[in-house]
Amino acid sequence: MTTPPKSHLFYQSRLRRPMLDQARGVYMWDLDGKRYLDGSSGAMVCNIGHSNEHVLEAMRRQMEKSTFGYRLHFETEPAERLAEKTAALAPDGMDKVFFVSGGSEAVESAIKLARQNAIALGEAQRWKVISRQPSYHGSTLGALALTGYAPLSAAFDPMMRPMPKIPAPRAYLDHLDASDEATGHHYADMLEARIRDEGPETVLAFIVEPVGGASTGALVPPAGYMRRIREICTKYGVLLIHDEVMSGGGRTGKFFAAEHWDVAPDILAISKGFAAGYVPLGAMVAKNEIVENVLDTGGFLHGYTYAGNPLACAAGVAVLDEIERENLMENATTVGAELKAGLNALMERYEIIGDVRGLGLFLAFELVCDRDTLEPLPRELNAYNALVDIAYDKGLIIYSRRTRGGYDGDHFLVCPPMISTSAHVGEILDTLDASLR
Ligand code: PMP
């Protein structure tokens, strides 16, 4: 394996992986020439596949002109075009786009805009942002305060203000029927109870991943949940923030996952698939009146130096064009259905698979000890690492986490790029089959 014996780099652990050489379409190659199928699109990022020629060409063209213009000195055409396209994709009345360079920054911006809107409205007593347990909203201290995953946040509790959490719906673990609206209302009503407990006049916002990502493994909310959440937020004047950093960008078959329930938030956070791994890029999109309120009363006290740079925005425009031109959301729906059927077929053969779930090409399966009780595998088994490593050796990249519904559990996200074909699905399923065996 071609990995330098000594490295000056560090990330979260001592884990070493081979050196990446090139990536094309759904495949990646290391320096030894070994090929991997990117079955998780990085971390649900590279939605349109690697090295897309249209995107590279758009980036080359922009690079020849300018790569950076500071936002207080210049407006740029790529930023204007990307904002226009993003606003067109967002729900009606959300025409204001604020660029950032990643998901945590998008969430951070959403919290700060919500807070400044409350102050502008004379409601400075509203500051609590309710979130869910488990959830993942980012690694900056503000976004981490909303993240419902103690192993990541506990060490920093004294340095930030942990926010109130309500349980994320987990119908499959509670043996409730997710297609029954009563189930969705059961979980959504926990939000109303919590708002009342906290004192509605102190609650600023509620943040939710419309389809859970790393936290719950493509867990789709039960029927009725997203609508009821919207109604509750409106009733108490609480802003609804959709964190579509992972679920947005088209892989569920709609550009924003919340479109599946025809529900619009007040503020949206997007990143990952938005620029599909070509550049660091994200955005916060908000209702017009919120932005107007804040800009009218002293301005938005927030910003990032690299935000909205023309190179990133030119790549973003090209990514959105490609999704449209190649009908990639339709493909995610069709190919996603094939992949889900294949995962269900694996579940029939392997007792150890306790659940298969997701929408479009945002899919996951979960390993359990006992399919009836859904008891998780013992933590010491380290299954979430083991299966990923076995598949990796066999040339398939999948993404795992050990958290589910508030308890331990091993889930695996299988989210190949939206350009995947039936042949790629076959290859993923064959490799998973061999890995599970
Ligand atoms: N929100 C969600 C739902 C995410 O999945 C992530 C990243 N996994 C983030 C926020 C943070 O994004 P980033 O790592 O780009 O800061």
TrEMBL record:
<dbReference type="Pfam" id="PF00202">
    <property type="entry name" value="Aminotran_3"/>
</dbReference>
<keyword id="KW-0663">Pyridoxal phosphate</keyword>
<dbReference type="InterPro" id="IPR015422">
    <property type="entry name" value="PyrdxlP-dep_Trfase_small"/>
</dbReference>
<dbReference type="GO" id="GO:0006526">
    <property type="term" value="P:L-arginine biosynthetic process"/>
</dbReference>
<keyword id="KW-0808">Transferase</keyword>
<dbReference type="InterPro" id="IPR049704">
    <property type="entry name" value="Aminotrans_3_PPA_site"/>
</dbReference>
<protein>
    <submittedName>
        <fullName>Adenosylmethionine-8-amino-7-oxononanoate aminotransferase</fullName>
    </submittedName>
</protein>
<keyword id="KW-0055">Arginine biosynthesis</keyword>
<dbReference type="GO" id="GO:0030170">
    <property type="term" value="F:pyridoxal phosphate binding"/>
</dbReference>
<dbReference type="GO" id="GO:0008483">
    <property type="term" value="F:transaminase activity"/>
</dbReference>
<keyword id="KW-0032">Aminotransferase</keyword>
<dbReference type="InterPro" id="IPR015424">
    <property type="entry name" value="PyrdxlP-dep_Trfase"/>
</dbReference>
<dbReference type="InterPro" id="IPR015421">
    <property type="entry name" value="PyrdxlP-dep_Trfase_major"/>
</dbReference>
<dbReference type="InterPro" id="IPR005814">
    <property type="entry name" value="Aminotrans_3"/>
</dbReference>
<comment type="similarity">
    <text>Belongs to the class-III pyridoxal-phosphate-dependent aminotransferase family.</text>
</comment>
<keyword id="KW-0028">Amino-acid biosynthesis</keyword>
